[in-house]
Amino acid sequence: MKVLCLNGPNLNRLGKREKEAYGTFTLEELETELMDFSAGNGIELSCLQSNHEGELIDWIHQAADDGTDAIVLNAGAYTHTSVAIRDAIASIQIPVIEVHISNVYKREEFRRHSHIAPVAAGQITGFGKDVYKLALHALLLTQSKG
């Protein structure tokens, strides 16, 4: 299974920003952990991060055309603002799992709306960095059901 893990704006600041909400791990540490988990579970994982909406959209489109089986997406603040990313997801035929490190429903009101959720295969929120592994595990379970 080929999976693309996309992280949006400010996730490159993990370990430095709002540690009470996001923890003390860095994006590099998270990606290393995910690569190890994926290698042990037969997943070919690629990880990308961008602070730019258009770049995330380009990667979503590219994934749909290059044989990627699924996307795990933490769109960061774009979750709550980007109709363009929502439309990019709606335009592809591969599943996208939306993830959030913090429980967005326990935070500010503006974080409680997701433009992505209605077009995502599922959403996992609030379990810290484990949301990514939970998403990968869900993809494995879905694949095994055929």
UniProtKB/TrEMBL annotation:
Protein encoded by which gene: aroQ
Protein family: Belongs to the type-II 3-dehydroquinase family.
Binding positions (substrate): 74, 80, 87, 101-102, 111
Active-site residues, record numbering mapped to chain: 22, 100
Example of a GO biological process term: chorismate biosynthetic process
Alphabetized Gene3D superfamilies for the sequence: Dehydroquinase, class II
The organism of origin for this protein: Planococcus koreensis
Enzyme Commission identifier(s): 4.2.1.10
UniProt keywords, alphabetically: Amino-acid biosynthesis, Aromatic amino acid biosynthesis, Lyase
Protein name, entry field: 3-dehydroquinate dehydratase
Superkingdom field: Bacteria
Family annotation (CDD domains): DHQase_II
